[in-house]
Design goal:
heterodimer, A: alpha+beta, Glutaredoxin, 10 helices, B: mainly alpha, about 0% strand
């Protein structure tokens, strides 16, 4: 026979103790409040920009947050559109540019495709710096000066060996001079970069691309179809573009 | 009778329950704490799964670290153990679903469970390990839902 424990239970059970319902309700309300506050703070943590930062650069196609068309003059009609999404700070994008950049540039110049570059900036978040924002804004400013393709390639050419080292403002200015932005155009470019004139555009590209399902870089689309995984060599890219044409 | 009472008041189930509560609680607090200081990164990690619509995924990314910390604290303290464990377990099931989803769709992402997240090289993905880990934590939650009684808990002190 086990001893009867009912007496003991009666003595340890508090009478008129804390009310489960009230404590539970208070905690539930606190949790909901904390979550709401977190969402509001998170939403406001997006990089904001001044009114002067809300100008889209020259050459943007596809509406708000669209990419920059590299070859508006050269592109023939009825050619496929090739969209490339890359972040100046992403090492794989650097290698992609090294491997596929020449083929892309050649096809763009020959007008065999509409070459649209979407400059991504999420590595700022990953790395905790602002080099993607600054370099992308700088490239957008170069687009205003008519030097986008040159500037874009030149930034990737000096990508730091160590991910996260980013680009200095001095480096970005040096690139502008090297690609032939001089005189009054250089002054305009410098005003554009120092005021972050296209910062909102940079944020818009990130949003628009994310909504289009691009969460990784580099991403290559031909006529809207993601073909990144099929790319092995520049020849495979050229073949894919030619196949899309017919 | 003997079996039933050892299940209700036995020492071994008590120890297992305490361990399950502390593991689930500490993991949740830890996972939330490393993410809460970088909401943008957390939003990016959730978006990378491509399960939820872009904007909504952002909100989930902002809210998740705070929710994890609070649930974890409740579990560490042993307050409303059954409800907290049930919510923690549902979170783990959601994570397992998300990771399986990414795996099945061939995305190469880090789950971002403990910070980080987003696209990584295909060779660096750890889907089986991540799923196994979350399943283990979900098992802790399941135990506590079935048997929320644990020693050293506020539930015990406050409500008897």
């Amino acid at each position: 026979m086990r001893p009867d424990a009912s007496k003991k239970i009666a003595t340890v059970t508090p009478k008129g103790g804390p009310n489960v319902v009230i404590i539970g309700a208070v905690i539930a309300v606190l949790v909901v409040l904390a979550v709401v506050v977190a969402i509001v703070i998170g939403n406001n943590s997006k990089p904001s920009s001044s009114a002067s930062g809300k100008v889209a650069p020259v050459g943007v196609v596809g509406g708000t947050g669209g990419g920059i068309l590299v070859n508006p003059a050269a592109a023939k009609t009825n050619v496929p559109t090739v969209d490339v999404y890359a972040d100046f700070q992403c090492p794989i994008c650097g290698r992609f540019e090294e491997q596929f950049g020449p083929a892309l540039t050649a096809m763009a110049k020959a007008g065999e495709m509409k070459y649209v570059v979407h400059m991504m900036s999420f590595l700022d978040t990953n790395l905790g710096n602002d080099a993607s924002l600054r370099s992308t804004n700088a490239a957008a400013c170069a687009a205003d000066a008519g030097k986008f393709p040159e500037y874009h390639s030149a930034v990737f050419a000096v990508q730091p060996a160590k991910e996260g080292d980013g680009y200095t403002d001095a480096q970005l200015t040096e690139i502008a001079k090297n690609v032939g932005i001089t005189g009054p155009a250089l002054t305009t470019w410098q005003q554009c970069t120092s005021s972050g004139q296209h910062n909102q555009y940079v944020a818009d590209v990130a949003d628009t691309s994310g909504k289009a399902g691009v969460t990784g870089t580099p991403t290559v689309k031909i006529n809207g179809k993601d073909i990144t995984k099929t790319l092995t060599t520049p020849e495979s890219l050229i073949a894919a573009v030619k196949a899309a044409k017919s | 009778m003997g079996l039933k009472s050892s299940w209700e008041t036995g020492r071994l189930p008590d120890v297992i329950g305490l361990l399950a509560r502390l593991i689930l609680g500490v993991v949740l607090v830890w996972a939330g704490a490393v993410k809460v200081t970088n909401p943008a990164q957390s939003a990016l990690a959730v978006r990378a799964f491509k399960v939820l619509p872009y904007d909504f995924a952002g909100y989930v990314g902002y809210a998740l670290p705070v929710l994890e910390i609070l649930l974890g604290l409740l579990l560490v303290l042993g307050l409303f153990t059954r409800v907290s464990a049930a919510l923690g377990g549902l979170l783990m099931l959601a994570f397992i679903f998300g990771i399986s989803w990414a795996w099945a769709h061939g995305y190469s992402i880090d789950c971002g469970c403990f910070g980080g997240g987003g696209t990584i090289a295909a060779s660096q993905t750890q889907y089986p390990l991540e799923i196994l880990r979350d399943a283990g934590i979900a098992a802790c939650a399941a135990w506590l839902v079935v048997r929320p009684r644990t020693p050293y808990s506020l539930d015990h002190r406050l409500f008897g």
